[in-house]
């Protein structure tokens, strides 16, 4: 049976590349974003994969809109196997540049948006007989707070913590939670950075790593690239006096 996947945040970057990979591998795909019809690439894909690709607008900031979108999703392909939450915003700021609206935006989309989707989504998934998977695109930034990235990493750390708490509950209902912790990917978001990004990856490479990881035997976390992942996880295990002596070297 063809796998049915819904991706939220599909109009560009990793989301768009994953849509392409899924379609090339005969998945049934529902691609969503706030203004999905503005993506010429997705419209072109729709003309090629008329039966396998559906486009659906969603505003993860609007709870009523999310509830209606979830209901529509489950009627498009008569159920769902994978929901991939990829919507996200990012700003890097020194404390002098703090703008509370940026903090609110990152929490609202990167974290609270997930809650708005999961509340109605889980009630549908648990009524299905088949195994299903909820995939949350987090970040290696969730491992340890780095200078200038506190607002973003806080939202992703909250997301990871939520996933950790949900996994035991949902697995009893045959719903599996997975997180994607990846490093720097060359997208419109990381284009804002004015610092050197170690192991910067092309978006098609990152999407392929995620696609391959999701098709391996289940594990809660998919993380890459290896060196950056190992370094940031090591920071979280070191005594703070050691880890801070390392991170202060990142200051401009």
Automatic annotation (TrEMBL):
Keywords: Membrane, NADP, Oxidoreductase, Transmembrane, Transmembrane helix
Keyword Ribosomal protein: no
PROSITE patterns listed in its UniProt record: ADH_SHORT
Transmembrane segments: 222-242
Keyword Cell inner membrane found: no
Gene Ontology molecular functions: oxidoreductase activity
Gene Ontology terms: cellular component: cytosol
InterPro entries xrefs: NAD(P)-bd_dom_sf, Sc_DH/Rdtase_CS, SDR_fam
Family indicated by similarity: Belongs to the short-chain dehydrogenases/reductases (SDR) family.
Entry protein name: Short-chain dehydrogenase
Species of the source: Arcobacter ellisii
């Amino acid at each position: 049976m063809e796998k049915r996947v819904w991706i939220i945040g599909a109009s560009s970057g990793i989301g768009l590349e994953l849509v392409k990979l899924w379609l090339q591998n005969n998945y049934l795909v529902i691609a969503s974003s706030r203004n999905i019809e503005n993506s010429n690439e997705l419209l072109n894909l729709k003309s090629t994969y008329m039966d396998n690709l559906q486009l659906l607008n969603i505003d993860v900031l609007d709870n009523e809109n999310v509830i209606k979108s979830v209901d529509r999703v489950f009627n498009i392909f008569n159920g769902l196997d994978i929901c991939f939450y990829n919507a996200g915003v990012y700003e890097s700021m020194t404390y002098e540049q703090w703008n509370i609206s940026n903090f609110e935006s990152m929490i609202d989309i990167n974290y609270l948006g997930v809650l708005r989707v999961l509340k109605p989504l889980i009630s549908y998934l648990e009524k299905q007989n088949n195994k299903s998977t909820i995939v949350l695109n987090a970040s290696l930034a969730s491992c340890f707070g780095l200078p200038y990235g506190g607002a973003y990493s806080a939202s992703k750390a909250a997301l990871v913590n939520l996933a950790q708490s949900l996994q035991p509950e949902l697995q009893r209902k045959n719903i599996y939670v997975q997180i994607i912790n990846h490093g720097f990917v060359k997208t419109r978001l990381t284009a804002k950075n004015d610092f050197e990004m170690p192991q910067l990856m092309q978006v098609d490479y990152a999407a392929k790593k995620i696609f391959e990881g999701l098709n391996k035997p289940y594990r809660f976390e998919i993380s890459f690239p290896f060196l950056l992942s190992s370094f940031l996880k090591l920071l979280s295990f070191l005594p703070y006096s050691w880890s801070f002596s390392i991170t202060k070297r990142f200051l401009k």
